[in-house]
Design brief:
single chain; 343 residues; mainly alpha; two-stranded antiparallel sheet; 12 helices; elongated; Palmitoyltransferase
Amino acid sequence: MDFLPLLLLYLCLVLAVAVLYCSHAGSGGGRLGRAARTAGQLLSLVIPTWLQSVTQKVLLRLFHTRNYLFVVLHIALQAAVYAEYTWEVFVYCWELEFHLLLLLLPYLLLAGNMGCFMLCSCANPGVITKSNHASLMKTYAYDGVLFQKGVVCATCNMEKPARSKHCSLCDICVHRFDHHCVWVNNCIGAFNAKYFFLYLLTLTVMAASIAIITAAFLIQVVLLSNVMHGSYIDDQGQEHAVEILFLIQHLFLTFPRIVFMLGFVILLTLILGAYCCFNLYLALTNQTFNEWYKSRRYRHSHHLTLQPCDRQAVYKNVYAKGVWMNLKEIFKSPTVLERKKKK
């Protein structure tokens, strides 16, 4: 048996498990995660033990301890995109007389994004301590389904306030816990959720702006060159009118780095856009990712045990207060609102 394809398949599965773990950090796995782990266990029967051991140590280091690997990767990818944008796209667009403010927009968004990134990464997410435990216990009521009264955190040795969770990576209990984000190397909780939302929004708009400017440049090049009205001769000597596939190939051969960057930022825009919309949905409905995931798991586990007439009333989000109040709670946590009322 050829060992190389098997090794590549094993590494792909490891990467898939890693990505799934990142997506569901702090909230357990899922069907896809269990399927990937099962496939990995089957392959472990033929994969050398030393490789399995190294893989487990690397994954343990990456996803079970706080580290700056993904922060460095995030900054490196951002630097690579902006280096290409500055070195080629900006210069070419300036020569084609694009509006200066449009060309500077990605840099303005970068400044805002880095500010949100620093705040999200360095801000206190809502660490529950003995000094603030009593006040945080009164912030939210227990819903009796996802959050039960009297549950004590075995690590922190304190009763868990409603909507809180212990993060095993940071080894702290977090108020209104959402998830642990490896890209900012910090938990997302009550006090930095607004920074995370703005960070995600600016990152999405930033990728979209670079994609739009780069695409506009390539379209301008095509229009100025009049290549769409031309023709080409294939390997058999037959003449054909220029098609989209030929045009993309021509652009890739002419501007390889720019076309590659465009493909990357378009993919990034789609992924970030979808994730941004999902986070907006969570904000509008006053849910955290942890609560959304737990409620889905709860509904699934109780679906078969209930009568058909009761299945719609399995779980009700008691924390939703209307769109405006839900958004207000993201940008002004309840503890801050309470302090202002007392003043």
